[in-house]
Design brief:
single chain; about 100 residues; alpha+beta; Arc Repressor Mutant, subunit A; 5 helices; 5 strands; globular
Length: about 100
Amino acid sequence: MVVDGIGATDGIGPQGITVRRTFMLLRTLGRMQVSIGVTQLALEAGLAKTTAHRLLQHLAAEGIVVHQGRKWVLGTGLRDLDRRLPDLGTIAYTALP
């Protein structure tokens, strides 16, 4: 059985499937050059619209994605997870060649 393009019998369990779906969504959103609506995002990620919407709501609560009107973009929350990434708002980053 396949649910949202993910084999339900691959042995990872429901939590693993949720994590996999979340990363499918984030990768798809990361490839977009502009904000995107949930319907198109779900289609591009191969997920059910309700699944995509639920995951986006959870990710927005953590600052990982941002809801702009009826569309979604990546937020700054991912940068907070990796302190090796430069803070784009600092003077030092702005002064880089």
